[in-house]
Amino acid sequence: MPEPIIAPSILSADFTRLGEEIARVPDADWIHVDIMDGHFVPNLSFGAMITAAAHRATDIPLDVHLMIENPEKWVDDHIDAGAHTVIFHVEATEDPVSLARHIREKGARAAFSLRPGTPIEDHLPILGEFDQVLVMSVEPGFGGQSFMPDQLDKVRTLRREIDARGLDCTIEIDGGISRDTIAAAAEAGCDAFVAGSAVYGAEDPNTEVGLLRSLAARA
Ligand code: DX5
Ligand code: ZN
User: Fold this and answer.
1) Model confidence at 170, in pLDDT bands (50, 70, 90)?
2) Counting atoms of ligand 1 from 1, which one is nearest the CA of 11?
3) What is the mean pLDDT of the chain?
4) What separation in Å is there between the alpha carbon of 16 and the centre of ligand 2?
5) Is the pLDDT score of 1 beyond 80?
6) Segments forming the whole domain that contains residue 142
7) For labelling alongside 141, which of 11, 55, 68, 194 has CA 20 to 30 A away?
8) pLDDT at 62 (0 to 100)
9) Confidence at residue 207, expressed as pLDDT on a 0 to 100 scale
C-alpha cells in the first residue's frame, strides 16, 4: 500500500500570513485550496489569485477544490495559477467528461467531487476519465463540521469499482477528518485525506500531519 496522502486545507489557515501558514506543514503531501463562489455553496472564499499566491509560497502540489457554478469558466485560471489537481463538482456541470479531458490536456490532474446527497452509481462509468474522486463527508461550504460516516459507503463502492477495473484513480475524502475519523475513512478505502481544522487547529500542525498519516497507514 502506498503511503496515505495528507492534504491540509488552507481554509482553516490564517489568511493574513498565508505563506507562513503553508510553511508550517512542510510534510504535507498536498495543499488543499477551497474555492467557493457564494452560489454553489452558501459561502464565499477566494479565487485563483490565492491559488497563485499559494503556488509562489510552496513547491507542494496544490489540490484545488472548486465549489462553484460554471467550473468550465474558471479551470484555466487555476491551472495557469499552478493547480496540480483540479476538482470540480458533478452537480455543477452538464459535461464532466469534456471538462476532465480539457483539464488533462492543460497538464493538470482531473477530479470530480460529489455532495453528500449525490449518489456515486451514475458516475461510475466515467471514472476512467479521472485521476481522482473527492468524496465529501460534510456539506460543502464550511470547515469545522462533523464527519458524516454514511458517506463511507460511497468510498467502499468506489474502492471496489476502481480495483475491479484496475484504474489509477485516487479516492480522496474531505470534511471532518481528524484523529477520530481518519482510520475509518482509510479502512473504507481512501487514499488521500483533506484536513482543515484538525491540522490548523493543532498546537503543531506539522506533527498533526504526521500523526494523521500514521493513523491512516495503520488502519
Ligand atoms: C468544506 C471544504 C473542506 C474544508 C474541510 O466545504 O471543502 O475542504 O476545508 O475542513 P475540515 O477539515 O475542518 O472539515
Ligand atoms: Zn475542500
Assistant:
1) very high
2) 9
3) 98
4) 20
5) no
6) 5-218
7) 55
8) 99
9) 98
Residue with cell 456539506: 139
| DSSP, residue by residue, 106-143 | TTSEEEEEE-TTS-SGGGGGGGGG-SEEEEESS-TT-S
14 tagged catalytic: no
Q: Which three cell numbers stand for residue 106?
A: 492543460
From CA 84, how far away is CA 66, in angstroms rounded?
13
Residues with CB under 5 A from ligand 2 (ion): 34, 65, 174
pTM over 0.85? The answer is yes
Count structural domains, the chain: 1
Q: What is the pLDDT of residue 200?
A: 98
Task: Please report, for residues 37, 40, 93, 195, the alpha-carbon distance to residue 70 in angstroms, rounded to integers and kept in the order given.
Answer: 10, 9, 7, 26
Domain of 171: which CATH number?
A: 3.20.20.70
Cell of 80: 495557469
Q: 9 alpha carbon to ligand 2 midpoint, in Å?
A: 7
